[in-house]
Design brief:
The complex is a heterodimer of chains A (597) and B (326).
Chain A: H1 2-16, H2 20-29, H3 34-43, E1 95-100, H4 117-123, E2 128-130, E3 136-138, E4 141-146, E5 152-157, H5 170-181, E6 194-195, E7 198-199, E8 201-206, E9 209-213, H6 221-225, H7 233-236, E10 257-263, E11 267-272, E12 285-290, H8 294-302, E13 308-311, E14 325-331, E15 336-340, H9 350-359, H10 362-369, E16 375-376, H11 403-412, E17 416-417, E18 423-424, E19 432-438, H12 442-456, E20 461-467, H13 469-477, E21 488-492, H14 504-507, H15 524-535, H16 539-556, E22 559-564, E23 566-572, H17 584-590
Parallel strand pairs in A: 1-12, 19-20, 19-21
Antiparallel strand pairs in A: 2-3, 4-5, 5-9, 6-7, 8-9, 10-11, 11-12, 13-23, 14-23, 15-21, 15-22, 16-22, 17-18
Helix pairs in contact in A: 1-3, 2-3, 9-11, 15-16
Chain B: H1 2-29, H2 34-44, H3 51-61, H4 67-79, H5 93-128, H6 133-147, H7 150-164, H8 182-219, H9 223-230, H10 235-247, H11 249-255, H12 258-264, H13 267-272, H14 278-287, H15 291-319
Helix pairs in contact in B: 1-15, 5-6, 5-8, 5-12, 5-15, 6-8, 7-8, 8-10, 9-10, 11-15, 12-15, 14-15
The chains are: A alpha+beta (597), B mainly alpha (326).
Amino acid sequence: MTDDRVSRLVEEARRLRWSRRKVLKRAAALGLSAPAISMVLAACGGDDPAATTAPAPAPATTPTAGAATTPAPAETPDVEEPTATTAAPVGGGGIINIPTTLGDSGIGNPILTSNIQMIEYYVFNRLMIYNDEGTLVPELAADWTFSDDNLTLTITLNEATWHDGEAFTADDVIFTFDTIAAETTETGKRSNLRVAGEFVTWAKVDDYTITITSPEAFAPLLFQLNQIPIIPEHLLSGSADINTDEFNRSPIGTGSYMLEEWASDQFMRFVPYENHFRGRARNDGLTVFFYADTEVSSAALDAGTIDMMFTPPELQPRYEGNPNFKLYNYVYFTPITLSFNHKHPILQDITVRRAIGMAIDKVALTESVTRGRGTIANNQFANSGPLDRYNDYDNVEPIPFDVAGANAMLDEAGYAAGSDGIRVAPDGTRFEFDVITYSGFEEYQNGQVIIQEMLREIGMEVTPQVVEYTTLEGMWADPNDPPENRALELEEWPHPFEFDPDLFNELHSDSLPPGLNYMWFEDDEVDRLIEVGRTTTDPDERVAVYKELDVRRSETLPTLPLYNAVDGWVASTALQGVADTPYYRRYVLTSAQDWSK
Amino acid sequence: MTAFIIRRLLWMIPLLLGVSVICFGMLKRAPGDQVTVLLAQSRASGEVLTTQDREDLQRLYGLDRPVYVQYYDWLKLTAQGNLGYSTRMRQPVTEVIGSRLWNTLKLTGVALVLTLTIALPLGVLSAVRQYSKLDYSLTLFNFIGISIPQFWLGLMLVYLFAVHLGWFPTTGMRNPQTEPGMWNALSDQLRHMVLPVVSITIVGIAGYMRFQRASMLEVIRQDYIRTARAKGLSENKVIFKHAWRNALMPIITLLGYVFVILVEGSVVIENIFSWPGLGQLAVTSLQQRDYPVMMGIVLLSATLILLGTLLSDIIYAIVDPRVRYD
């Protein structure tokens, strides 16, 4: 068994020219012993092949080494670490069972909904994709280059086939973009093709080349393109109504798996696509079960019905120390924050926001709600995700935990305590705030209660409110939602799973509700930095801009970073080929073909 | 009687209209809509979303029009027998509801038959042997059954019989890896049905048994029962022919709602056991703001309640000769 795994690993490492680090990581994930790992390294030559396999740089680019490189137009693709396996056809790896608690949308056309991500990633491919290490790598695109002015992107396509045997060509890409842009298509993906509010233009050069022209240099363009799965032109171009086409229940893509069976609200069964351009999956298929929540998933995991799942903090002790399971870390790309509604008359005062920051003991809060797994956050992005490099650890001053200082600041600002100990503004408004979060996360609800207690110490009466997520989204989008309804919000913010640091939607004053700047934050300098950040294409310069933004955010406090959540995901030890990656959400989607039992 | 039935059926039209106005208005008042859901899903997968996306979709779905216009359009379609398209699944609402209806009927039908078969005789027995050990035991069972939250009972059954003992599957309606063949499919389906059916049945038995016991206790103290005994009728004849028939009257009232129970199923149990029935559909549709499906389910429920009460009135007249609707 070990020999088989060793030989497979060697073959894969040679084929992909893996770095020594990558080989070690995969070997560890496969559970190989030290002698076996030595054998693998020896068989691979022991060198770091990265030094000899760097892709040819594109004319107008300055490639940046390292897996953590920011995707920006000025980059060439990193072709060393594709997300899909390129191993020779293997199979025989059993059927892998995984859950989803996001519900069954019943639609398999990935440009109409992102609800069933498994279909989007298993059945379809994108031009480029972030791998499980947060690096943008080619998928249906073979490579891409930007023109000198960074306005025109030329993409060369891979040779691939659809599950029905038809060849994938540039026509499919053009058709996908046209369909998304069409007014009658019920899609939330249009903005992926927009820059500064206008559609980019796309054109076919030949069967395997396309160009995309942007009205201005736009750093997040590749990130946006990575959000678009490509759909088949030959099957959908004649559709009377793409929103209700039969294709939506029987999708055909170019991905590693074909959808074999779809029992609504029960499960989806996928089988490997033998002719996938990166090779056949190791396993014999995947079954995705639809479950109501993590409690139900957990019972299924314990019973052996599924092989892995996401585990919130309250479920993690069940698997810690259990030899049948391995617990992995799972991180968000953004800290868990206490956001301030800037339309609220009291919270508009920076003194109040700062005093709240000083009254919260982040150490105690983090220790309690994350059961010791989280870390303190003072910067704009999580310290464990791919956006960490945009944090300015040198210049952002952490807010000290100082209750006496906070009280003194509020006294000095004229907010005296009333007879019941609750402060009152000069206009008579009491310091009473609702702190809102969405249901389903015990961690956040515990956090609300702790914050309630901490803020009582500085004369604030805080009432926890928990609402269903869709209800909260509805409140965000309503420009007339009274600020008292959600004076404070506790959640992951601004964007937990985006790989690009652009904050235009969340913090720019042009994005106020019904836009996504639902905390109504406005600051001219923050606006300026966001605008510079999204039009700066040089990765290093971009990092500098966002570091400046991090400092400005710490001065203006649109939101108070509290802690970096480290949730978990758990996998059965019977499952092989599982890597210890923090990007579980993405990993489950992009690496399933590597697993076997 | 015929005139009564026709009158009641005609009354259903304004009642259903009223229900639809109230429900449509309430659903529209709830924060969020299908666009909010679509964009939230996209955002959760790391999408870039703007106000422009929201406006495009709201226009496409017709959500930018006044609520009364949206209601009028819905009503016009519904009057033609078209409940519209599910915004979540982009399938006709009738197909979406129809595909779940049979699944729910399978589950609740079996559970209801078991519930009535067990609860009614035990209720009678408990009343006839009032204050006996059997009565105390059954009363204790009743209290436990009524007090246990159904979701907790369901989860406990899963942990005991599925996780620890491995006798039954944890959730779902069938195993995707089941070998082909009718018998394999049937046995697989029965195994999946056991735990949800038991969960519904235990709670159902407790409720119906208690109701039957109370009703029976009232009847067996009546003079005509004493008279029957005095006439020298056997105890079985007294109980089952004279007492039980009269003690069934309140149960018949409840049975008017059996339609609703049958069709709506157990919302909680279907969700815990991932059983793809109408109850699960209702919860998901509400969460996903799938208003066309929600309106379809509301209309179905309201119609069944009205038909159920009509049916119980008719059965009343059949069972009790004193009741006349002329």
